[in-house]
Amino acid sequence: MKRKIDMLEGNALKNIILFALPIMFSSLLQYNYALVDNIIVGRYVSTDALAAVGNVGSINSFIIGAALGLTSGFTIPVAHAFGARNSKKVAHYAGSSIVVAFSIGVFIVIIAHIISTPLLKLIGTPKEIIKLSAAYVNILYFGVPFQMLSNNFTAISRAVGESKKPLYYFTATVFVNFLLDLLFVKHFRWGVEGAAAATLISHILAATLTGFYIIKLNSDVQITKNDLKPNLKTALEQIKLGIPVSLQFTITSVGTMCLQSAVNSFGANVIAGFTAAGRVENLTNLPMSALGVATQTFVGQNYGAKNYKRITKSIGSIFLLDLGVSVLMSITLYLIGMPMVSIFMKEQNPEIMHAAQRYLLATVQCYSLVAVLFVLRNSLQGLGFTYANMIAGAGEFIGRISIAFIFSKIIGFTAVCYAAPAAWLFADIPLIIIYLAKRKQLLKMEEEKEKTPASQE
User: Fold this and answer.
1) How many Å apart are CA 125 and CA 195, to the nearest integer?
2) Has this prediction a pTM greater than 0.85?
């Protein structure tokens, strides 16, 4: 097998950085789907429309996040098989993940359309924007199977050491999304429905391009027709790995929805400010997130290759790097946060801008907490210990729920601004404990490997 970036040999930190850069830019491009929708809707429709689109963020995280979380687990065996240099297992697990991802995606579309409006009511969506929010998401959810496919194809590519190619395909789809947004929203005046339709078409295109690359062009993944046949045993194995990751997204999103209900109580202007600031903050999250995804691939491949010492030694260096990046991103967010927020609005409303500023200031004070979260969660996920994601998700849930139902009633919107830092802290604590325990196990496995003759491995 030919590896584009060799995670099994050489300078681990250098390889992870090189691998992470295309992931960061790919994530930036994918994130632009929502970002472009928000900017164009805010500038060419209305503040209520911006609030309506932002209001569905927590519900999208609950439904779409849970769906995409599954695919993160599906491809862990692909990385392990690639590290073990077993090409048949690579193709087998990759083919199975494609079938399972699309099948579950279709099922989720049906469920999403049933529960979307009740969820909007549950989080206390203001009457003036609930119809707009429902119209937006009910078109958007048709894209879930295609999002799952493109996410799965991209994860397969990264599992076998290729992070650049997905960047090229997502670049094309972002331009398509932007042009269609302008056409549907600005020219045709289709409002939030036009923004959702543009995103849906872009997701279909992304799934088509990334799928063609994996099935036809990637020489490290030789998928045959037999690999695409449903295999219950393999599917259950992959779903078992994916469910804890999915539950992490689900549990976290329930907490986010509870928090959104607290935000909604402050009115449409605060919702718009919270939405715009959150979108900007997510941009500065991307470098740390990309390093986390690259770490997962590194850990997964080396675990398959039984390079246990290489894993434990490198994670310490990655951890220090990510902390440094978090400090840099805090400074960046502080400097460019408010100018970026102003892009979302045609006319700046003082109440919107004040809410956004308070949110951003709270975030920059605590950004290092999210760096710890990304490194440890993805390291454990690469090892196949996906249950840690679920435990971390429960920690995030506790952090957000305490803010939404207790502190927001005592100190108001200030509490809401510190909800994310509280969630990161409550997730970090169990992840640190779990990782230290697993680290001891890896060191013990390395000792046993060194005692075992190579012929008996």
Assistant:
1) 20
2) no
